[in-house]
Design the sequence.
């Protein structure tokens, strides 16, 4: 959205007075509103093509103008214009029908507070959509400029992944005697070095792989395109290329210079809006500070500076002017700090300052000075003056500090505590983090403790739900499901506690490993009784990021004396979409060990088949919503098309939540390989399903 103070509004109401009443409501809420009353569809067509509008409020029908025609015209002109319908009375079915046709909502006209909330929500959504489009344009421009910089650079630059080249600029190709990037793709960077230097470089790569976020240099001897050795210094830094994380390598020869390296390093460490350092750079500096504190008894602190009520500021001044507020605050903060301080912007309205070699009193005094600076800052925006305040949380760094992320979290918590104090309820204060003052929600404390205790006492409950084959596979198939009995008597599913934000990723990984160990043990005992059984084990998103997990799984399966194909590891499409690189590495890592994987809850992403192409999965379980909508002809057609595409990719398909014989018949016609659900059997505590009777299903 083009940020601006004025809300441009289109209205279709019965009378001019009604339109003016709505405009008055918006203006009284703080929105400078410019409205136009629609007189006809021709008038609307003219307005849409001549100007950019933010919102349209309309009754379902005024005269011969119906809201369906309005929605059709907006769609035909390809306009992003939210439409909110007004009516004297609103029922659920009527609202559902309007939303299905493209309206955002329907609101009773006399519910002014509700109408205002819905309007504000849709404007936030519109701003977000416009922001995304603007950022996409800026990203493409930045990528083009970055690519141009690389191509025109006289210094050799390459990108590597797992020690293999994925890109190199012309200077790099010329240096090592390769005619094109295609000739270099997939070639180990080890081959660029003199044979005598390769052993030492191999050890260096291991160090780099252990901590890919650090910047390292390696001096060695390279072999140029003529086969001649030359001295070079290789600089390695974390980067991304073609949306993939990799490592950037810059070669400096004896005749070269480090200008490009320094420029790239500077670009990678800066926030584009303010020119301050960014969060990755701050984390790197914080890591060094913690190391120094632990190893050399240094001390200092972190200031977490959160602008108060920034959402309201942004709503009042608009997004681009909100950026002006951020920039002015950044400049004011920077002016009050020394060159030894590290000032970074780590969030939209959040700054962070790292100061070392200062005691607690000095850091608190600094925090108070910065708070006062922001409070008295006058920001000119057009003919308006904007002011702001900030809540500042302080966390100290000492020899007891261990994890940089924990220190940042402590400072964040302290900033939140500012608003809980009686005299600073709206912020504009400073708070020092003290360990005993860190209070988590009771639920979070209880859940964390209950889960940890469940691992120690082996008190989780495993259930097993069978899957039956519709294609004659005689292997017994089960899925392992996890349950947790709570102290109050309730039982939580794995999905409930894995989705709880209070549960740490580390604990989630421990739970997954517990499930793997106990399931493989039970499966081994079951197979020893003569059953040819295959078990599906679910893994959470946190486990996909555990690089050591594939190797550990291989050891666990071997320890249980299970054949490799008897256990299938299953993860969600949503996790794979968010963590595509990790999911790709995980699935391929298990594939190399002969262990199959499955993708569950499939088909709800915008482009699910694109995700699938990156994964080495053997099974695909579609999302349960497809089963629940089988009675709908369009939904059934969609599912059939999706399954056809999966079968063309030679994937074994599973459909869950099957509850009727009618569903089974439809799914069999679609070529589904396996079905699962209460029609087959509810989850049970034992592997007791009689697969010999599945022909009667």
Sequence:
């Amino acid at each position: 959205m083009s940020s601006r103070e004025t809300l441009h509004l289109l209205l279709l109401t019965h009378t001019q007075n009604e339109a003016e009443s709505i405009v008055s409501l918006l203006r009284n809420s703080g929105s400078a509103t410019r409205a136009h009353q629609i007189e006809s569809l021709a008038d609307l067509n003219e307005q849409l093509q001549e100007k950019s509008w933010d919102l349209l409020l309309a009754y379902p029908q005024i005269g011969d103008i119906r809201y369906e025609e309005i929605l059709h015209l907006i769609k035909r002109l390809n306009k992003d214009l939210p439409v909110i319908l007004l009516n004297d009375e609103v029922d659920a079915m009527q609202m559902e029908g309007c939303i299905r046709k493209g309206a955002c909502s329907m609101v009773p006209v006399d519910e002014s507070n509700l109408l205002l909330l819905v309007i504000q929500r849709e404007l936030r959504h519109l701003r977000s959509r416009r922001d995304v489009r603007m950022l996409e344009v800026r990203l493409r421009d930045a990528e083009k400029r970055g690519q141009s910089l690389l191509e025109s650079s006289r210094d050799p630059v390459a990108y590597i992944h797992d020690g293999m080249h994925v890109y190199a600029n012309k200077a790099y190709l010329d240096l090592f005697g390769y005619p094109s990037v295609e000739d270099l793709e997939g070639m180990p960077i080890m081959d660029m070095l003199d044979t005598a230097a390769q052993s030492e470089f191999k050890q260096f790569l291991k160090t780099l792989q252990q901590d890919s976020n650090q910047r390292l240099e390696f001096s060695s001897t390279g072999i140029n395109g003529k086969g001649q050795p030359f001295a070079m210094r290789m600089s390695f830094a974390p980067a991304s290329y073609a949306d993939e994380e990799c490592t950037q390598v810059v070669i400096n020869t004896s005749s070269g210079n480090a200008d490009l390296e320094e420029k790239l390093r500077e670009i990678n460490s800066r926030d584009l809006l303010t020119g301050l350092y960014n969060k990755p750079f701050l984390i790197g500096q914080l890591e060094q500070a913690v190391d120094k504190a632990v190893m050399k008894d240094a001390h200092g602190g972190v200031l977490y500076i959160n602008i108060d009520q920034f959402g309201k500021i942004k709503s009042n001044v608009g997004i681009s002017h909100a950026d002006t507020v951020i920039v002015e605050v950044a400049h004011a903060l920077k002016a009050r700090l020394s060159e030894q301080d590290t000032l970074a912007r780590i969030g939209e309205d959040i700054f962070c300052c790292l100061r070392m070699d200062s005691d607690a009193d000095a850091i608190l005094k600094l925090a108070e000075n910065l708070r006062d600076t922001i409070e008295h800052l006058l920001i000119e925006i057009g003919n308006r003056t904007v002011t702001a305040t900030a809540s500042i949380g302080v966390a100290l760094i000492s020899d007891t500090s261990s994890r940089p992320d924990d220190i940042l979290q402590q400072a964040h918590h302290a900033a939140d505590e500012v608003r809980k104090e009686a005299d600073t309820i709206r912020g504009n204060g400073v708070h020092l983090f003290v360990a005993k003052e860190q209070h988590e929600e009771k639920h979070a404390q209880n859940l964390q403790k209950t889960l940890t205790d469940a691992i120690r006492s082996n008190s989780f409950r495993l259930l097993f739900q069978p899957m039956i084959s519709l294609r004659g596979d005689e292997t017994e198939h089960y899925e392992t499901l996890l349950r947790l009995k709570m102290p109050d008597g309730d039982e939580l599913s794995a999905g409930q506690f894995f989705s709880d934000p209070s549960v740490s990723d580390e604990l989630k990984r421990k739970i997954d490993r517990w499930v793997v160990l106990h399931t493989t043990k039970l499966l081994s005992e079951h197979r020893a009784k003569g059953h040819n059984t295959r078990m599906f084990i679910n893994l959470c998103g946190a486990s996909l990021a555990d690089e050591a997990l594939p190797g550990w799984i291989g050891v666990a399966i071997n320890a249980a004396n299970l054949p490799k194909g008897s256990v299938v590891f299953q993860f969600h499409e949503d996790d794979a979409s968010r963590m595509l690189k990790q999911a790709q590495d995980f699935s391929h890592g298990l594939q190399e060990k002969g262990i199959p994987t499955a993708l569950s809850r499939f088909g709800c992403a915008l482009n699910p088949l694109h995700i699938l192409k990156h994964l080495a999965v053997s099974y695909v379980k579609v999302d349960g919503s497809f089963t629940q909508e089988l009675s709908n002809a369009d939904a059934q057609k969609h599912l059939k098309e999706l399954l056809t595409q999966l079968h063309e990719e030679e994937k074994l398909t599973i459909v869950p939540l099957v509850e009727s014989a009618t569903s089974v018949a439809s799914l069999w016609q679609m070529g589904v390989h396996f079905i699962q659900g209460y029609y087959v059997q509810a989850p049970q505590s034992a592997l007791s399903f009689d697969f010999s009777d599945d022909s009667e299903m």
